[in-house]
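Priority: medium. Attachment 1 of 2:
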């Protein structure tokens, strides 16, 4: 499963660093550097982020708006916020422009936007519908001023093989990446169960796509077994990272220091975004998770 050094270096340069709203974004480069002298730095740059999903119970109940979440990000001292789009009050261009302006005025970049998709569809018509949805959200992500859009691979239908699932995702995601490239936006397929529950499937999808506008939204907690080698396999493709401090149904604790060492070794540049999903109330649970993330980002950032 080899891939070209130029693509690998470009992905590392991009990292999850879709640093929008005033923060320089390597992801906005139209193509990888051609000159040897322009090779990206191998030094890691790890930014503290937070996903709106961390406050899902507050969002679902209406107790928190996306504007409230942006202000909460300021209060928590993160470098950027990931907009889980399920709870946007509107998707009209005027509102998205207002939200972008609100974030900018509060000094809060968007690390990206996140949508739910199911590209693992045997029916070509349904795959076409997923493609249209992604394109629509690429346009909306551009309006938000973000440079990264999280997508899901989806669940394998009963009786389908991994190979079939991988091919369905590739057939859907390839034209989506081509379209996203025209906007300077990277599509990050998340490690999120189903076809993406195995690192090998994620890597194979990205190998076949072979696009600098495709990457892995690496959720470090979503590999149900033996997570460390799977996380490590995905780091060269990582364009954004979601962080919990456990994995699997038994919520086995993750050794976050070990994980951060791997990201540093891989020269990752981008966000390490808290995606809290614990039993404790998010208002106290999220700060505790960020209290683990912040010192690790400071410890292992080498640039």
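Attachment 2 of 2:
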């Amino acid at each position: 499963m080899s891939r070209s050094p130029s693509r690998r270096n470009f992905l590392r340069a991009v990292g999850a660093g879709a640093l929008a709203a005033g923060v320089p974004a390597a992801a906005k480069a139209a193509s990888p550097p051609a000159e040897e002298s322009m090779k990206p730095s191998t030094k890691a740059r790890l930014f503290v982020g937070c996903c709106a999903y961390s406050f899902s119970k507050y969002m679902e109940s209406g107790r928190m708006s996306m504007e409230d979440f942006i202000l909460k990000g300021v209060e928590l001292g993160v470098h950027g916020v990931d907009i889980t789009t399920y709870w946007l009050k509107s998707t009209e261009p005027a509102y998205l422009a207002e939200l972008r302006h609100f974030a900018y005025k509060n000094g809060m970049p968007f690390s990206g936007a996140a949508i739910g998709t199911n590209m693992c569809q045997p029916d070509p018509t349904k795959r076409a519908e997923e493609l249209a949805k992604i394109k629509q959200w690429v346009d909306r992500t551009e309006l938000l001023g973000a440079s990264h859009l999280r997508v899901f691979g989806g669940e394998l239908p009963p009786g389908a093989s991994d190979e079939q699932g991988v091919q369905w995702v590739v057939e859907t995601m390839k034209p989506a990446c081509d379209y996203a490239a025209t906007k300077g936006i990277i599509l990050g397929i998340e490690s999120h169960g189903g076809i993406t529950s195995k690192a090998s499937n994620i890597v194979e999808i990205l190998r076949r796509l072979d696009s600098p506008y495709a990457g892995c939204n690496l959720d470090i907690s979503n590999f149900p077994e033996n997570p460390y080698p799977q996380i490590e396999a995905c780091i060269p493709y990582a364009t954004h990272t979601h962080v919990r401090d456990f994995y699997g149904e038994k919520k086995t604790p993750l050794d976050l220091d070990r994980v951060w060492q791997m990201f540093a070794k891989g020269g990752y540049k981008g966000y390490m975004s808290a995606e809290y999903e614990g039993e404790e109330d998010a208002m106290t649970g999220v700060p505790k998770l960020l209290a683990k993330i912040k010192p690790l980002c400071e410890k292992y950032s080498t640039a």
